[in-house]
Design a protein that fits this description.
The chain contains 5 helices and 7 strands; from the N terminus they run H-E-E-H-H-H-E-E-E-E-E-H. By secondary structure, the protein is of the alpha+beta class. Helix 3 packs across helix 4. The termini are far apart.
């Protein structure tokens, strides 16, 4: 069986979903107009889409083949947004609520200046992963959370498995500590 080089895998992925991991300028993209929509609940799907961008699939990956159209709905190459911040990926989550009801929830790329709605508050949003909100008269509250880095506006790929592994390592450390403590205590 022939092995496929990383650049060939990247080219195949690019031809399949129109993105490539070489430049690494990606954000999650999606939008909802209600609470509990796909953009807010398809967290595992988004994480899996990120995983396939960062680790291009092999040609025999059946899971990827079945869901590749779904995955590409949640990923956006943000290279065209590098106007104000060259070589830097800025991602955003924007929300608009009216009388406690979610009217917009959006993940996307940003140039750091332009957003889905006009943001006029003196405190301009910064790429610090903090939420900046402003009242829009009687129409509701508009919020912007901007961050810096690939896929920073959504879930981390394999984040659940990372926590599981770190938890297992923590348990092993504690058990070793107890074992050493018992040996020292019984050895006296």
């Amino acid at each position: 069986m022939a092995t496929v080089s990383r650049s060939t895998q990247c080219l195949l992925l690019f031809m399949t979903i129109g993105v490539c991991v070489v430049s690494g300028n990606f954000c999650y993209q999606c939008a909802d107009t209600k609470v509990g929509g796909d953009c807010q609940t398809y967290i595992k799907t988004m994480a899996r889409a990120r995983h396939y961008i960062e680790n291009p699939p092999t040609s025999d990956d059946e899971v990827y083949e079945k869901k590749k159209d779904l995955y590409k709905l949640f990923v956006k190459n943000c290279t065209l947004y590098h106007q104000g911040y060259p070589n830097e990926t800025l991602c955003v989550i924007e929300t608009f609520e009216y009388r406690g009801q979610m009217n917009m929830y959006m993940r996307d790329c940003t140039d750091g200046v332009n957003f889905a709605a006009e943001y006029t508050d003196v405190r301009r949003p910064r790429a610090d992963n903090q939420t900046y909100c402003e009242r829009k008269g009687d129409t509701g509250t508009y919020c912007v959370r901007m961050c810096r880095g690939n896929f920073c506006n959504g879930p981390f790929a394999n984040s659940a498995s990372k926590y599981l592994i770190s938890g297992i390592v923590w348990v092993i450390i504690v058990l070793n500590f107890i074992s050493v403590f018992q040996e020292v205590h019984h050895g006296m």
